[in-house]
Amino acid sequence: MKSFWKLTFLLTIIFSMAACSGGETSQTGDEIKLILGAYTTPREAYGEIIPLFQEYWHEKTGQQVVFEESYLGSGAQSRAVIDGFEADVVALSLEADVTRIQEAGLITHDWKASETGGIVTTSIVAFAVRSGNPENIQDWIDLTRSGVEILTPNPSTSGGAMWNVLGAYGAALRGQIDGVPADDPEAARTFLKQVLANVTVMDKAARDSILNFEKGIGDLAITYENEVLVGRQSGQDYELVIPSSTILIENPLAVVDASVDKHGTREVAEAFVEFLFTPQAQEVFSQHGLRVVNSDIAAATVDQYPIVEDLFTIENFGGWQSVMEDIFGESGVYTRAILEVQGGE
Amino acid sequence: MPFKNIGGEKMQQIKKGWGRWVLIFLVLGYMGFLILAPITALVKGAFENGLMPVLRVITSPVFLQSLALSLKIAIIVVILQIFFGTSIAWVIVRQEFVGKPLLNGLIDIPFSISPVVVGYMLLMMFGRNGYLFPIMEKLGIKVAFAVPGMFLATLFVSLPFMIREMIPVIKNLDRKQEFAAQTLGASQWKVFWRVIFPQIKHGMIYGLTLTLARALGEFGAVLVIGGGVQGRTETTTLYIFRCLDERRYIEAYTASIFLGSFSVLIVFLADWFKRRQIRQHRNDNGFVG
Predict the structure, then answer these.
(1) Torsion, Cα of A122, A128, A320, A294 (10° steps)
(2) Where in chain A is the domain with CATH 3.40.190.10?
(3) Residues B96, B34 within the same domain
(4) Residue A212 and residue A130: Cα distance in Å, rounded?
(5) What's the helix, strand, coil split of chain B in %, to 5?
(6) How many other C-beta atoms lie within 10 A of the C-beta of residue A70?
(7) Per-residue pLDDT for chain B (289 aa), expressed as one digit of tens each?
(8) d(Cα B211, Cα B80) in Å, to the nearest integer?
(9) Which of A130, A228, A333, B190 is deepest in the core (most CB within 10 A)?
(10) What CATH number matches the domain at A31-121+250-300, 3.40.50.1980, 3.40.190.10, 3.40.250.10, 3.40.50.10860?
(11) End-to-end CA distance of chain A
(12) Are residue B86 and residue B185 in the same domain, yes or no?
């Protein structure tokens, strides 16, 4: 009986200690809180940029910016903001995810008004292959070879995975793949199906996919150039292969009006967004495998980020709205292709 | 006739035979492969670069913050479950009412629903478009993407443990003692503390242990409802998840070991406590009965 009370007493102490230590930081005059809701890929870059911004803002205003960061898959992050996660700034993988927040009425300004159309970084769809490229994978056509095991995330959960599908389908449509005539949607769809037939693992997010590749699964991962470069920076020995024709990935950024108005953080949020376009921040993005919109830095890093022979963009498909319907919609090209492949056709 | 002999010589033979060793070897091998091998791999991974990196992790503010949040949620949840779990079990065993089978069925729902779905269900209640959102907004209480939502999620997933543990314990209560105490004029309160409580406390502690371990280990539901905001809604399991994503493996392994050992320690403590109580009980009653 006595020891039961001792235990209860002990638990009460631990409990009250835990309860005390969890207090939230308050929004005082010389401290301001900024909430960043981002997709998973650029988190290493933000880890370096945020301290730079804090320093910049402190010098300018004397205020200390306290950051709250959340990194989820782009689609999941977009839904979280709509469901009530009050991010002041969202940095996502694709425009459609920002548009969804806009359609929910939380972004009310024209976020695409800036010079770059709200795009802060870019990348391209590329391949990660095993060290020494034992399967000799050079271009999209090699992905259809029998026995090649491919990893690519699932477009239904990973917004970014859509880029991979668009890369394969687009290259085929543009007549950049041997044996696939240009502007022939049926031939391009058949090619896409051949690629999908070799996909062995479909993870829920781009990072999961490349991490599984690191664990030794598969011969190649269709992923973003920056995922491969960041992986190599962390000591992985796989190699980057850039296909001759691929899509430009464009990552948007926006201030969420509903959140900043509620928190009174518009000024600092807008300053942070602006800061991400400065050469200082763009340089950091560039060091973390991302292509940047700042033309000076892009020109200076052209050795690291070679120009792609045939680079196309989402506009070649008529923009995100038509892509979401024609390719990923209920009877879209991809939706039908994956059903047929999984149906064992 | 094998059945006749089994109690005597045959039993002796089985004990001495090699078959027994095969069985023991099989059991140890199975447990070793299933439990010990992964733990060994984890420990090896954490200490890959020696002790210093491990110490750095367990003293880092981010990890400690996540641990404080995990403990805060788990302990409050445990306290609530002790009270409500025991009450619900009591009502189910001792009371008869119309909706009882329904209540009994409801209890097991958290076992069968995936935690991720639990998170989404709560979002549909408390998210910006949830039906309780306007009320909470007026009250100024943030539930979704905040700690209160994580409490609710953890309460939901850990609900059955205490109740399922307490139902048989309450069923087995010796009612004669209760009646005797009542006959002797003890108040309801006194009957509970002096007669009932000593009989059910082992069950309570065991239920508490399971609830605590479940609460500390919860992942999917708290990720969805909490959003995994670093330093605010990031529990230790979410911290581990993030470290794996960021290829910071030593951090992830170290935090896993820490969290795992904590749960194991609690289970051992409860077990030790239970055995000590049983021994005491025997000593107390040994010469009386």
Answers:
(1) 10
(2) 31-121+250-300, 122-249+306-342
(3) no
(4) 13
(5) 80, 0, 20
(6) 26
(7) 444 445 555 555 555 678 888 999 999 999 989 988 988 999 998 998 889 899 999 999 999 999 999 999 999 999 999 999 999 999 999 999 998 999 999 999 999 999 999 999 999 999 998 999 999 989 999 999 999 999 999 999 999 999 999 999 999 988 888 889 888 888 888 888 888 998 898 889 889 998 999 999 999 999 999 988 988 999 999 999 989 888 888 999 999 999 988 888 888 888 887 787 777 767 766 544 3
(8) 11
(9) A228
(10) 3.40.190.10
(11) 69
(12) yes
Taking a C-beta distance cutoff of 8 angstroms, is the pair B46, B192 a contact? no
Q: How far apart are CA B173 and CA B159, in angstroms?
A: 22
Residues of B contacting chain A (CB within 8 angstroms): 65, 68-69, 71-72, 75-76, 78-79, 123, 126-130, 133, 144-145, 147, 198, 201, 205, 227-232, 242, 244-247, 273, 276
The whole-number pLDDT of residue A4 equals 53
Residues of B in contact with A14 (CB under 8 A): 71, 75
pLDDT in the model for residue A73: 80
Q: Which residues contact A51 (CB under 8 A, 6 or more apart)?
A: none
Residues A143, A167 contacting (CB under 8 angstroms): no
Closest chain A C-alpha to B231 CA, distance in angstroms: 7
Q: Is A84's CB within 8 Å of B126's CB?
A: yes
Q: Kindly report the number of other CB atoms within 10 A of residue B200's CB atom.
A: 20
pLDDT for A67 beyond 50? yes
* Inter-residue long-range contacts of A183-188, CB under 8 Å, 24+ positions, other chains counted: A185/A333
Amino acid sitting at position B227: G
